[in-house]
Design brief:
With 425 residues, this protein is α+β, with helices and mostly antiparallel strands. Helices cover 28% and strands 26% of the residues. Strands 1, 2, 8, 9, 10, 11, 17 and 18 form an eight-stranded mixed beta sheet that branches. Helix 1 packs parallel to helix 6 (161-174), helix 1 packs parallel to helix 10 (377-392) and helix 2 (58-76) crosses helix 10 (377-392). It binds flavin-adenine dinucleotide (FAD). Flavin-adenine dinucleotide binds next to helix 1, strand 12, strand 16 and helix 10.
Length: 425
């Protein structure tokens, strides 16, 4: 049997694609094959699942804003709880950083997106954060600067990535889509377009296409094969000579329980949002604190770049050294509430980093690749699903949620047109 579409990977990207494809073409046979025993057990389920619609670039606004609006619709109108909470993002900025991005903030606010400046007295009072630390010897050694002010973005928050994954999975299956779990793809099958029945085809002079996959459960053929394997995309693409310009980079989250009164008070910080929860807080040097209110804890993380290899590991382990020598040193310096805090648990996953930190979506010889979400795949998954659906149908423009049109080729490699994001903090 030949499937119309075969999607590899049941993460948020593969499932969003599957749902939008099956919804647009109910008569098409769509199969997902997934190596793990359930959906979302790759990087989707390891995500901090924070989202924002406050961006500078046209690309980010289109992909993130429309996706987040769709999730809001799913939660509020369809009544499917994704645990979306608009707790906001709070950027704690040094004077230097604020100077760098002031014009960008003004530009964004002229477009009607709101943010609030919070001065250091208010920050100290509400959060107990230390804003003047630069005079201390260890701060000097570490290059830690004073916090000059806070920028609170309200159109932002957190959600439960597994609930989003389950939403797409359920809808896809309801529409008649099929998923095979515990099915690992060993390789993509390259076949001649016009087989001649000769041994060892295809020959270098033959026109070829990707005809399906060889898996742990045998061969599956398809008219279109779609790679949605996130950070593992190069493992399938490199052996057949397709370069998606994506590399895996390890990312870690450490869970700190709010086990002391000062930490509990911080978790329930008042007056930043309606729920009186600490916003997702970004400290200088990129350390972030994400409240996990359901489990009375904080998730803390940090993105390190140079010095951290691009390297895939089957079972990535969190590195306690990275917490104690990296995150903790910055965390407790600004937030003394964390003094002595040890992680109760931790996990590690991967960002699938693309050439410009934006997703990559392209087609070559009946193979579609959708990956490279670079650490923001949860907040962009719905738009990516719609764009891949349009590519599959041969449409030039995808209609994103709310009606915005997005040129499909803008995320390709050969006609790529993504706008640089200037609000990187
Ligand atoms: C620590 C961390 C924090 C993050 N925080 C955020 C955040 O705050 N906000 C945000 O928007 N994004 C965040 N992200 C990024 C986000 O999680 C990813 O962008 C997103 O999950 C990518 O989804 P995916 O479906 O492409 O990949 P995955 O979820 O990894 O799915 C790929 C699937 O393919 C399967 N697969 C791979 N190879 C094969 C094979 N050969 N055969 C069969 N199946 C295969 C895997 O098992 C997996 O299930 C974070 C990521 C990490 C690691």
């Amino acid at each position: 049997m030949q499937y119309d579409a075969l999607i590899i990977g049941a993460g948020v990207i593969g499932l969003s694609i599957a749902y939008h494809l099956k919804k647009a073409c109910p008569e098409n046979n769509v199969l997902i094959v997934e190596a793990k025993e359930d959906a979302g057990l790759g990087d989707s389920g390891k995500s901090a699942a924070a989202f924002r619609t406050f961006f500078y670039s046209r690309t980010n606004i289109a992909l993130a804003t429309t996706s987040v609006e769709f999730y809001k619709y799913v939660q509020e109108k369809l009544g499917y709880n994704l645990n979306m909470r608009y707790i906001g993002y709070l950027f704690l900025l040094t004077k230097r950083k604020y100077k760098d991005i002031r014009d960008v903030l003004d530009y964004i606010s002229k477009r009607g997106l709101r943010f609030e400046i919070i001065d250091t007295d208010v920050l100290k009072k509400r959060l107990g954060v230390r804003t003047s630390i630069s005079y201390e010897r260890d701060s000097k050694l570490m290059g830690l600067e004073d916090i000059h002010l806070g920028v609170l973005v309200k159109e932002a928050g957190i959600m439960d990535p597994m609930k989003l994954v389950k939403f797409y999975e359920e809808q896809f299956v309801k529409l008649g889509g099929k998923i095979l779990y515990n099915t690992k793809v060993h390789r993509l099958i390259v076949e001649p377009r016009r087989p001649l029945g000769l041994p060892n085809e295809p020959y270098p002079w033959q026109d070829v296409r990707i005809a399906g996959v060889k898996t742990s459960r045998g061969v599956f053929k398809a008219k279109k094969t779609i790679v949605a394997t996130g950070a593992q995309a190069p493992q399938l693409l490199d052996p057949i000579g397709i370069d998606a310009h994506i590399k895996p980079k390890k990312r870690q989250i450490f869970v700190i329980e709010a086990s002391t009164p000062p930490l509990r008070k911080l978790l329930r910080a008042r007056n930043f949002n309606k729920e009186n929860i600490l916003p997702l807080t970004i400290l200088p040097k990129g350390v972030y604190i994400r409240p996990a209110i359901e489990e009375n804890s904080f998730w803390v993380g940090m993105s390190d770049y140079i010095g951290r290899a691009f390297m895939w590991e089957e079972e990535p382990k969190p590195e306690l050294r990275f917490y104690f020598n990296g995150i903790y040193m910055i965390l407790f310096k600004y937030f003394p509430q964390f003094s002595g805090a040890k992680p109760a648990r931790a996990w590690a996953g991967f960002y699938d980093i693309s050439l410009d930190y934006q997703p990559v979506v392209f087609e070559v010889e009946d193979l579609i690749v959708a990956a490279g979400t670079s650490g923001s795949g949860i907040m962009k998954a719905d738009a990516i699903g719609r764009i891949v659906k349009s590519l599959y149908l041969g449409e030039k423009y995808a209609e994103l949620y709310g009606g915005e049109k997005f040129k499909v080729k803008d995320l390709s490699l050969d006609e790529r047109r993504v706008e640089k994001e200037k609000l990187i903090i």
